[in-house]
Amino acid sequence: MLEIFKYDFMQRAFIVGTLLAIILPAIGMTILLKRLSMMGDSLSHASLAGVSIGLFLGINPLIGSVIICIVAGLFVEFIRNKLKSYQEISTLVILSASVGVAGIFSSLSGSSTNITTFLFGSIVTISDAEFYTVILISAIVLITYGLIYEKLYLSVFDREAASLMGINTAILDFVFTILSAIAISIAAKTIGSLIVSSLLVIPVITAMSFTKTYKSTLIASVIMCILFVYIGLFVSYSFNLRPGSVIVLIAVASLIISLIFKK
């Protein structure tokens, strides 16, 4: 079993998987509590549009993914603020637009095969440049999240009280949207744009079945997500399967088991 660590590509996969397993539940918990669970789907499809644009322009697809995800995240916030009574529509609009853009630019660039690899991810085939890019972006996301953690906690549960305490919720939303877009874009490249939204939400929901506080739920969801990733990598290596698909199926199975035994 330990022979898996003899290969450089698997060592990179475990490192990247660990970083994403820490970031995604942290971002996903806030998204879930804000009732914006569809945001993960919207931004993951936006990352696919970014990849297709990057391939069309001849630039690094990961850079294109990050840029378009940030733009899409900002548009989600813009539409939410304009349609306060129907905020959930914002994610649907961006998702629809992203699918359309991805389809057009993939046709123009003739790179439909390359686009397919981003649908299910390629965590075991990331290049050295992508590996170091993921590490750098992950460090930025984690540090920034740590700095805004308490303010984010307050704004999620009592937005008015947070404003009265001097927290600029508009700027906080802007920063969190940027963090979400960056995290989802790098995750979409490594574990798949069709799968990333599942790891944003499923570990958090599973953890909620066994915990009672915000902090304990966050810690438990990160631990669970790390386990999902590790088990998924071992299983996919043993049976020559797509790691992203295996990871998400393990996460779903764990959620179902937790719901069955939930008191």
UniProtKB/TrEMBL annotation:
Pfam entry (one): ABC-3
Spans traversing the lipid bilayer: 12-33, 53-79, 91-111, 131-149, 161-184, 190-210, 217-237, 243-261
Keyword tags: Membrane, Transmembrane, Transmembrane helix, Transport
Topology within the bilayer: Multi-pass membrane protein
Keyword flag Transferase: no
Highest taxon of the lineage: Bacteria
Major subcellular location class: membrane
Entry's localization field: Cell membrane
Similarity comment: Belongs to the ABC-3 integral membrane protein family.
Record protein name field: Metal ABC transporter permease
Protein species of origin: Peptoniphilus ovalis
